[in-house]
Amino acid sequence: MTQTKIQLEENEIPKQWYNVVADMPNPPTPPLGPDGNPIGPEALAPLFPMALIEQEVSGERWIDIPEKVREMYAIWRPTPMFRAHRLEQALGTPAKIYYKYEGVSPAGSHKPNTALPQAYYNAEAGIKRLSSETGAGQWGSALSLVGKWFGLDVVIYMVKVSYDQKPFRRSMMHTWGAEVFSSPTDQTEAGRTILEKDPESLGSLGIAISEAVEVAAANKDTNYSLGSVLNHVLLHQTIIGLEAKKQFEKVGDYPDMIFAPCGGGSNFAGVAFPFFADKAAGKKIQLVAVEPTSCPTLTKGTYAYDFGDAIGLTPLMKMYTLGHDFMPPGIHAGGLRYHGDSALVSQLYHEGLIEAIAVPQIATFEAGVQFAQTEGIIPAPEANHAIRACIDEALRCKESGEPKTLFFNLSGHGHFDMAAYDSFFSGELEDFEYPEEDIQASLRNLPRVG
Ligand SMILES: *Cc1c(COP(=O)(O)O)cnc(C)c1O
Quick one: which atom of ligand 1 is closest to the CA of 261? Predict the structure, then answer.
Protein backbone atom coordinates (compact mmCIF):
# COMPACT_ATOMS: atom_id res chain seq x y z
CA MET A 1 0.00 0.00 0.00
CA THR A 2 1.29 3.45 -0.83
CA GLN A 3 1.51 5.70 2.16
CA THR A 4 -1.28 8.25 2.58
CA LYS A 5 -0.57 9.90 5.93
CA ILE A 6 3.01 10.94 6.64
CA GLN A 7 3.59 11.62 10.32
CA LEU A 8 6.46 12.73 12.51
CA GLU A 9 7.14 11.96 16.15
CA GLU A 10 6.86 14.66 18.81
CA ASN A 11 10.63 14.70 19.22
CA GLU A 12 10.96 15.59 15.54
CA ILE A 13 9.37 19.03 16.08
CA PRO A 14 12.11 21.40 14.87
CA LYS A 15 14.30 23.02 17.55
CA GLN A 16 14.96 26.16 15.49
CA TRP A 17 13.10 28.41 13.09
CA TYR A 18 14.64 29.22 9.70
CA ASN A 19 15.38 32.84 8.76
CA VAL A 20 15.29 33.30 4.98
CA VAL A 21 17.21 36.59 5.22
CA ALA A 22 20.43 34.57 5.54
CA ASP A 23 19.90 33.09 2.06
CA MET A 24 18.48 36.09 0.19
CA PRO A 25 20.75 37.47 -2.54
CA ASN A 26 20.18 41.04 -1.30
CA PRO A 27 19.68 42.46 2.19
CA PRO A 28 16.04 43.17 3.09
CA THR A 29 14.76 46.70 2.46
CA PRO A 30 14.57 48.62 5.74
CA PRO A 31 11.28 49.95 7.17
CA LEU A 32 11.09 53.75 7.08
CA GLY A 33 9.73 56.28 9.56
CA PRO A 34 7.39 59.17 8.68
CA ASP A 35 10.42 61.31 7.70
CA GLY A 36 11.48 58.77 5.09
CA ASN A 37 14.56 57.60 7.04
CA PRO A 38 15.13 53.99 8.13
CA ILE A 39 13.81 53.36 11.63
CA GLY A 40 15.81 51.67 14.38
CA PRO A 41 14.56 48.88 16.64
CA GLU A 42 13.62 51.46 19.33
CA ALA A 43 10.85 52.82 17.06
CA LEU A 44 9.06 49.47 17.40
CA ALA A 45 9.52 49.22 21.18
CA PRO A 46 6.12 50.78 22.12
CA LEU A 47 4.39 47.95 20.23
CA PHE A 48 6.56 44.81 20.51
CA PRO A 49 8.79 43.12 23.12
CA MET A 50 12.54 43.32 22.42
CA ALA A 51 12.86 39.57 21.74
CA LEU A 52 10.49 39.89 18.77
CA ILE A 53 12.14 43.10 17.54
CA GLU A 54 15.49 41.26 17.54
CA GLN A 55 13.96 38.50 15.42
CA GLU A 56 12.44 41.14 13.14
CA VAL A 57 15.87 42.52 12.22
CA SER A 58 17.93 39.35 12.54
CA GLY A 59 20.16 38.04 9.76
CA GLU A 60 20.94 34.74 11.56
CA ARG A 61 19.97 31.66 9.55
CA TRP A 62 18.70 29.65 12.55
CA ILE A 63 16.87 30.99 15.60
CA ASP A 64 16.26 28.77 18.64
CA ILE A 65 12.67 27.95 19.57
CA PRO A 66 12.31 28.41 23.36
CA GLU A 67 11.83 25.04 25.07
CA LYS A 68 8.52 26.15 26.59
CA VAL A 69 7.19 27.11 23.13
CA ARG A 70 8.35 23.81 21.65
CA GLU A 71 6.58 21.92 24.44
CA MET A 72 3.36 23.79 23.74
CA TYR A 73 3.70 23.37 19.97
CA ALA A 74 3.36 19.65 20.76
CA ILE A 75 -0.31 20.26 21.68
CA TRP A 76 -1.02 20.08 17.92
CA ARG A 77 2.35 19.61 16.21
CA PRO A 78 3.89 17.97 14.27
CA THR A 79 1.01 18.40 11.83
CA PRO A 80 0.29 15.59 9.37
CA MET A 81 1.19 15.60 5.70
CA PHE A 82 -0.96 13.64 3.28
CA ARG A 83 -0.56 12.19 -0.18
CA ALA A 84 -3.81 13.06 -2.00
CA HIS A 85 -4.29 9.70 -3.75
CA ARG A 86 -8.04 10.05 -4.19
CA LEU A 87 -7.80 13.58 -5.57
CA GLU A 88 -5.07 12.45 -8.00
CA GLN A 89 -7.31 9.62 -9.15
CA ALA A 90 -10.33 11.88 -9.61
CA LEU A 91 -8.23 14.24 -11.71
CA GLY A 92 -6.66 11.41 -13.68
CA THR A 93 -3.31 13.15 -13.38
CA PRO A 94 0.15 11.57 -13.45
CA ALA A 95 1.19 14.24 -10.92
CA LYS A 96 1.71 13.34 -7.28
CA ILE A 97 -0.10 15.70 -4.91
CA TYR A 98 0.88 16.20 -1.26
CA TYR A 99 -0.51 18.60 1.30
CA LYS A 100 0.40 19.67 4.81
CA TYR A 101 -2.62 20.09 7.08
CA GLU A 102 -2.44 23.03 9.50
CA GLY A 103 -6.14 22.80 10.43
CA VAL A 104 -5.36 20.44 13.33
CA SER A 105 -4.48 23.32 15.67
CA PRO A 106 -7.18 24.15 18.26
CA ALA A 107 -8.01 27.36 16.36
CA GLY A 108 -8.15 25.49 13.03
CA SER A 109 -5.34 27.17 11.07
CA HIS A 110 -1.60 27.83 10.93
CA LYS A 111 -2.00 31.10 12.88
CA PRO A 112 -1.29 29.62 16.37
CA ASN A 113 2.26 28.79 15.15
CA THR A 114 3.12 32.47 15.64
CA ALA A 115 0.45 33.44 18.21
CA LEU A 116 2.07 31.04 20.67
CA PRO A 117 5.64 32.44 20.59
CA GLN A 118 4.31 36.01 20.39
CA ALA A 119 2.29 35.51 23.58
CA TYR A 120 5.28 33.78 25.20
CA TYR A 121 7.72 36.65 24.50
CA ASN A 122 5.18 39.31 25.54
CA ALA A 123 4.41 37.54 28.82
CA GLU A 124 8.17 37.18 29.48
CA ALA A 125 8.48 40.95 28.98
CA GLY A 126 5.80 41.65 31.61
CA ILE A 127 3.06 42.75 29.18
CA LYS A 128 -0.52 42.32 30.44
CA ARG A 129 -2.66 42.76 27.32
CA LEU A 130 -2.41 42.20 23.56
CA SER A 131 -4.39 44.11 20.97
CA SER A 132 -4.82 42.95 17.42
CA GLU A 133 -6.99 42.87 14.32
CA THR A 134 -8.62 39.95 12.61
CA GLY A 135 -10.08 39.46 9.13
CA ALA A 136 -12.00 36.21 8.84
CA GLY A 137 -11.42 35.61 12.55
CA GLN A 138 -8.63 33.06 12.20
CA TRP A 139 -5.92 35.26 13.66
CA GLY A 140 -8.17 36.65 16.38
CA SER A 141 -9.10 33.15 17.50
CA ALA A 142 -5.46 32.02 17.47
CA LEU A 143 -4.40 34.93 19.65
CA SER A 144 -7.39 34.51 22.00
CA LEU A 145 -6.49 30.83 22.42
CA VAL A 146 -2.90 31.43 23.50
CA GLY A 147 -3.67 34.59 25.52
CA LYS A 148 -5.25 32.61 28.35
CA TRP A 149 -2.36 30.12 28.39
CA PHE A 150 0.01 32.97 29.24
CA GLY A 151 -2.35 35.01 31.43
CA LEU A 152 -2.70 37.82 28.89
CA ASP A 153 -5.91 39.75 28.16
CA VAL A 154 -6.69 39.95 24.45
CA VAL A 155 -8.66 42.64 22.60
CA ILE A 156 -9.54 42.04 18.95
CA TYR A 157 -10.77 44.44 16.25
CA MET A 158 -12.64 42.26 13.76
CA VAL A 159 -13.29 43.52 10.21
CA LYS A 160 -17.01 44.34 10.06
CA VAL A 161 -17.85 42.25 6.99
CA SER A 162 -16.46 39.13 8.70
CA TYR A 163 -17.92 40.05 12.11
CA ASP A 164 -21.32 39.89 10.39
CA GLN A 165 -20.55 36.90 8.09
CA LYS A 166 -18.78 34.71 10.67
CA PRO A 167 -20.51 35.01 14.05
CA PHE A 168 -19.07 31.68 15.28
CA ARG A 169 -15.48 32.87 14.96
CA ARG A 170 -16.53 35.67 17.26
CA SER A 171 -18.03 33.12 19.69
CA MET A 172 -14.77 31.17 19.64
CA MET A 173 -12.82 34.27 20.64
CA HIS A 174 -15.33 34.91 23.43
CA THR A 175 -15.02 31.30 24.58
CA TRP A 176 -11.27 31.75 24.91
CA GLY A 177 -11.89 34.94 26.89
CA ALA A 178 -11.10 37.74 24.45
CA GLU A 179 -12.95 41.03 23.92
CA VAL A 180 -14.06 41.45 20.28
CA PHE A 181 -15.23 44.62 18.49
CA SER A 182 -16.63 45.12 14.99
CA SER A 183 -14.17 47.40 13.17
CA PRO A 184 -14.38 50.29 12.39
CA THR A 185 -15.46 51.20 15.97
CA ASP A 186 -16.15 54.62 17.39
CA GLN A 187 -13.69 53.97 20.25
CA THR A 188 -10.52 54.94 18.42
CA GLU A 189 -9.39 58.03 16.52
CA ALA A 190 -8.72 55.78 13.51
CA GLY A 191 -12.16 54.16 13.58
CA ARG A 192 -13.93 57.50 13.96
CA THR A 193 -11.99 58.97 10.99
CA ILE A 194 -13.13 56.11 8.76
CA LEU A 195 -16.76 56.23 9.98
CA GLU A 196 -16.94 59.98 9.32
CA LYS A 197 -16.01 59.35 5.68
CA ASP A 198 -18.18 56.25 5.31
CA PRO A 199 -20.63 55.33 8.10
CA GLU A 200 -21.45 52.09 6.22
CA SER A 201 -17.80 51.00 5.93
CA LEU A 202 -17.40 47.19 5.68
CA GLY A 203 -14.03 47.59 7.34
CA SER A 204 -10.73 46.20 6.14
CA LEU A 205 -7.66 44.61 7.67
CA GLY A 206 -5.86 47.93 7.16
CA ILE A 207 -8.46 49.80 9.23
CA ALA A 208 -8.58 47.16 11.98
CA ILE A 209 -4.77 47.30 12.22
CA SER A 210 -4.94 51.09 12.68
CA GLU A 211 -7.35 50.62 15.59
CA ALA A 212 -5.32 47.88 17.29
CA VAL A 213 -2.03 49.78 16.88
CA GLU A 214 -3.57 52.96 18.29
CA VAL A 215 -4.74 51.12 21.42
CA ALA A 216 -1.35 49.47 21.96
CA ALA A 217 0.58 52.70 21.42
CA ALA A 218 -1.63 54.54 23.94
CA ASN A 219 -1.33 51.93 26.74
CA LYS A 220 1.92 50.99 28.42
CA ASP A 221 0.78 47.54 29.56
CA THR A 222 -0.61 46.71 26.09
CA ASN A 223 1.38 45.47 23.12
CA TYR A 224 0.30 44.97 19.56
CA SER A 225 0.44 41.59 17.91
CA LEU A 226 0.34 41.01 14.15
CA GLY A 227 -0.81 37.76 12.55
CA SER A 228 1.11 38.03 9.29
CA VAL A 229 3.39 40.27 7.16
CA LEU A 230 6.22 40.96 9.63
CA ASN A 231 9.53 39.11 9.45
CA HIS A 232 9.20 37.52 12.90
CA VAL A 233 5.76 36.15 12.01
CA LEU A 234 7.10 34.53 8.84
CA LEU A 235 10.01 33.18 10.85
CA HIS A 236 7.71 31.39 13.32
CA GLN A 237 5.68 29.90 10.47
CA THR A 238 8.75 28.19 8.96
CA ILE A 239 8.02 25.35 11.36
CA ILE A 240 5.52 24.21 8.68
CA GLY A 241 8.09 23.88 5.89
CA LEU A 242 10.78 22.48 8.18
CA GLU A 243 8.46 19.66 9.23
CA ALA A 244 7.38 19.13 5.62
CA LYS A 245 10.99 18.65 4.53
CA LYS A 246 11.38 15.84 7.09
CA GLN A 247 8.09 14.32 5.91
CA PHE A 248 9.23 14.35 2.28
CA GLU A 249 12.46 12.67 3.41
CA LYS A 250 10.43 9.91 5.05
CA VAL A 251 8.76 9.03 1.76
CA GLY A 252 11.86 9.68 -0.34
CA ASP A 253 10.21 12.40 -2.39
CA TYR A 254 10.70 16.13 -3.03
CA PRO A 255 8.31 18.73 -4.51
CA ASP A 256 8.74 20.36 -7.93
CA MET A 257 6.21 23.05 -7.04
CA ILE A 258 4.78 24.41 -3.80
CA PHE A 259 1.51 26.37 -3.59
CA ALA A 260 0.11 28.35 -0.68
CA PRO A 261 -2.65 30.94 -0.31
CA CYS A 262 -1.19 34.40 0.15
CA GLY A 263 -2.75 37.21 2.18
CA GLY A 264 0.05 38.83 4.14
CA GLY A 265 2.40 36.02 3.14
CA SER A 266 2.90 34.15 6.42
CA ASN A 267 1.72 30.63 5.59
CA PHE A 268 3.25 30.89 2.12
CA ALA A 269 6.58 31.88 3.65
CA GLY A 270 6.15 29.27 6.36
CA VAL A 271 5.82 26.41 3.94
CA ALA A 272 8.05 27.76 1.14
CA PHE A 273 11.04 29.48 2.79
CA PRO A 274 12.69 26.31 4.14
CA PHE A 275 12.62 25.01 0.55
CA PHE A 276 13.94 28.37 -0.68
CA ALA A 277 17.11 27.51 1.23
CA ASP A 278 17.55 24.57 -1.19
CA LYS A 279 16.68 26.78 -4.17
CA ALA A 280 19.32 29.29 -3.08
CA ALA A 281 21.77 26.36 -3.03
CA GLY A 282 20.92 25.53 -6.65
CA LYS A 283 18.00 23.11 -6.42
CA LYS A 284 15.17 23.47 -8.94
CA ILE A 285 11.85 24.19 -7.25
CA GLN A 286 8.98 26.59 -7.96
CA LEU A 287 7.37 28.45 -5.06
CA VAL A 288 3.95 29.85 -5.96
CA ALA A 289 1.90 32.31 -3.88
CA VAL A 290 -1.81 32.22 -4.76
CA GLU A 291 -4.02 35.28 -4.24
CA PRO A 292 -7.60 36.29 -5.14
CA THR A 293 -8.23 38.22 -8.39
CA SER A 294 -10.28 40.67 -6.28
CA CYS A 295 -7.26 41.59 -4.11
CA PRO A 296 -4.30 40.89 -6.43
CA THR A 297 -1.48 42.40 -4.42
CA LEU A 298 1.54 40.65 -5.93
CA THR A 299 0.19 40.15 -9.44
CA LYS A 300 -1.33 43.64 -9.98
CA GLY A 301 0.10 45.81 -7.22
CA THR A 302 2.98 48.30 -7.26
CA TYR A 303 6.32 47.63 -5.55
CA ALA A 304 6.66 50.72 -3.36
CA TYR A 305 6.94 51.99 0.19
CA ASP A 306 3.50 52.05 1.81
CA PHE A 307 1.83 51.92 5.20
CA GLY A 308 0.76 48.59 6.67
CA ASP A 309 -2.54 50.05 7.92
CA ALA A 310 -5.28 52.22 6.40
CA ILE A 311 -4.64 55.42 8.36
CA GLY A 312 -0.85 55.57 8.22
CA LEU A 313 0.19 54.76 11.79
CA THR A 314 2.70 52.00 10.96
CA PRO A 315 6.23 52.40 9.64
CA LEU A 316 6.53 52.35 5.84
CA MET A 317 7.44 49.01 4.33
CA LYS A 318 8.62 48.32 0.80
CA MET A 319 6.12 45.84 -0.53
CA TYR A 320 3.69 45.06 -3.29
CA THR A 321 0.66 47.15 -2.45
CA LEU A 322 -2.73 48.10 -3.84
CA GLY A 323 -2.57 51.30 -1.78
CA HIS A 324 -3.15 51.46 1.97
CA ASP A 325 -6.67 52.88 1.58
CA PHE A 326 -7.75 50.30 -1.03
CA MET A 327 -10.98 48.65 0.08
CA PRO A 328 -11.07 45.05 -1.24
CA PRO A 329 -14.44 43.54 -2.23
CA GLY A 330 -16.11 41.49 0.56
CA ILE A 331 -14.95 38.05 -0.59
CA HIS A 332 -15.26 35.07 1.74
CA ALA A 333 -11.53 34.46 1.99
CA GLY A 334 -11.29 37.27 4.55
CA GLY A 335 -7.70 36.34 5.38
CA LEU A 336 -6.67 37.33 1.86
CA ARG A 337 -8.28 40.80 1.89
CA TYR A 338 -5.11 42.77 2.62
CA HIS A 339 -3.80 45.67 0.52
CA GLY A 340 -0.12 44.84 1.06
CA ASP A 341 2.16 41.88 1.53
CA SER A 342 5.18 40.85 3.55
CA ALA A 343 8.33 42.82 2.65
CA LEU A 344 10.36 39.58 2.42
CA VAL A 345 7.84 37.86 0.15
CA SER A 346 7.58 41.05 -1.94
CA GLN A 347 11.33 41.35 -2.35
CA LEU A 348 11.76 37.71 -3.39
CA TYR A 349 8.89 38.12 -5.87
CA HIS A 350 10.41 41.34 -7.23
CA GLU A 351 13.70 39.52 -7.77
CA GLY A 352 11.96 36.71 -9.67
CA LEU A 353 12.81 34.05 -7.08
CA ILE A 354 9.22 33.15 -6.25
CA GLU A 355 6.04 33.26 -8.35
CA ALA A 356 2.49 34.46 -7.87
CA ILE A 357 -0.85 33.84 -9.54
CA ALA A 358 -4.38 35.13 -8.92
CA VAL A 359 -7.53 32.98 -9.04
CA PRO A 360 -11.22 33.99 -9.02
CA GLN A 361 -13.50 33.21 -6.08
CA ILE A 362 -16.01 30.78 -7.63
CA ALA A 363 -13.27 28.58 -9.11
CA THR A 364 -11.64 28.35 -5.67
CA PHE A 365 -14.85 26.97 -4.15
CA GLU A 366 -15.19 24.46 -7.00
CA ALA A 367 -11.69 23.25 -6.11
CA GLY A 368 -12.49 23.19 -2.39
CA VAL A 369 -15.59 21.05 -2.94
CA GLN A 370 -13.73 18.61 -5.19
CA PHE A 371 -11.05 18.37 -2.51
CA ALA A 372 -13.60 17.79 0.26
CA GLN A 373 -15.35 15.08 -1.75
CA THR A 374 -12.10 13.19 -2.43
CA GLU A 375 -9.82 13.90 0.55
CA GLY A 376 -12.49 14.54 3.20
CA ILE A 377 -11.30 17.75 4.83
CA ILE A 378 -13.42 20.85 4.18
CA PRO A 379 -10.87 23.60 3.54
CA ALA A 380 -10.94 27.24 4.61
CA PRO A 381 -11.85 29.56 1.69
CA GLU A 382 -8.28 30.94 1.81
CA ALA A 383 -6.80 27.46 1.41
CA ASN A 384 -9.09 26.84 -1.58
CA HIS A 385 -6.91 29.29 -3.52
CA ALA A 386 -3.88 27.01 -3.20
CA ILE A 387 -5.99 23.96 -4.00
CA ARG A 388 -7.32 25.64 -7.18
CA ALA A 389 -3.80 26.45 -8.36
CA CYS A 390 -2.54 22.96 -7.52
CA ILE A 391 -5.43 21.24 -9.30
CA ASP A 392 -4.89 23.45 -12.37
CA GLU A 393 -1.23 22.41 -12.44
CA ALA A 394 -2.17 18.74 -11.99
CA LEU A 395 -4.52 19.08 -14.97
CA ARG A 396 -1.70 20.62 -17.04
CA CYS A 397 0.39 17.58 -16.07
CA LYS A 398 -2.42 15.40 -17.40
CA GLU A 399 -2.18 17.21 -20.77
CA SER A 400 1.60 17.02 -20.95
CA GLY A 401 2.05 13.64 -19.26
CA GLU A 402 4.59 15.12 -16.83
CA PRO A 403 4.59 13.32 -13.45
CA LYS A 404 5.42 16.38 -11.32
CA THR A 405 5.39 16.32 -7.55
CA LEU A 406 3.04 19.05 -6.32
CA PHE A 407 2.68 20.20 -2.74
CA PHE A 408 0.33 22.71 -1.16
CA ASN A 409 -0.33 24.06 2.29
CA LEU A 410 -3.83 23.36 3.58
CA SER A 411 -3.64 26.37 5.89
CA GLY A 412 -6.89 25.71 7.75
CA HIS A 413 -10.27 24.02 7.83
CA GLY A 414 -13.52 25.70 6.80
CA HIS A 415 -15.81 24.60 9.63
CA PHE A 416 -16.66 28.20 10.45
CA ASP A 417 -17.01 29.17 6.81
CA MET A 418 -19.98 27.01 5.90
CA ALA A 419 -22.11 30.09 5.15
CA ALA A 420 -19.64 30.82 2.34
CA TYR A 421 -20.06 27.26 1.02
CA ASP A 422 -23.84 27.74 1.24
CA SER A 423 -23.59 30.89 -0.90
CA PHE A 424 -21.54 28.91 -3.39
CA PHE A 425 -24.09 26.07 -3.56
CA SER A 426 -27.01 28.47 -3.97
CA GLY A 427 -25.23 30.30 -6.80
CA GLU A 428 -25.02 33.57 -4.86
CA LEU A 429 -21.25 33.70 -4.82
CA GLU A 430 -19.78 36.36 -7.11
CA ASP A 431 -16.56 36.75 -9.01
CA PHE A 432 -15.42 40.31 -8.59
CA GLU A 433 -13.80 41.99 -11.55
CA TYR A 434 -10.29 43.24 -10.97
CA PRO A 435 -11.12 46.54 -9.20
CA GLU A 436 -8.80 48.57 -11.42
CA GLU A 437 -10.31 52.02 -10.82
CA ASP A 438 -10.32 51.66 -7.03
CA ILE A 439 -6.74 50.42 -7.09
CA GLN A 440 -5.57 53.29 -9.32
CA ALA A 441 -7.33 55.80 -7.05
CA SER A 442 -5.73 54.27 -3.98
CA LEU A 443 -2.26 54.11 -5.54
CA ARG A 444 -2.39 57.88 -6.06
CA ASN A 445 -2.31 58.17 -2.25
CA LEU A 446 0.96 56.25 -1.81
CA PRO A 447 3.34 58.09 0.54
CA ARG A 448 6.04 59.92 -1.43
CA VAL A 449 9.24 58.42 -0.01
CA GLY A 450 11.97 55.97 -0.93
C1 LIG B 1 -4.91 34.13 7.65
C2 LIG B 1 -5.04 32.98 6.77
C3 LIG B 1 -4.44 32.96 5.50
C4 LIG B 1 -3.74 34.13 4.91
O5 LIG B 1 -2.74 34.74 5.69
P6 LIG B 1 -1.19 34.56 5.39
O7 LIG B 1 -0.51 35.44 6.35
O8 LIG B 1 -0.97 35.00 3.96
O9 LIG B 1 -0.88 33.15 5.60
C10 LIG B 1 -4.55 31.81 4.75
N11 LIG B 1 -5.23 30.74 5.20
C12 LIG B 1 -5.84 30.72 6.41
C13 LIG B 1 -6.59 29.50 6.84
C14 LIG B 1 -5.75 31.85 7.23
O15 LIG B 1 -6.33 31.82 8.43
Answer: 10
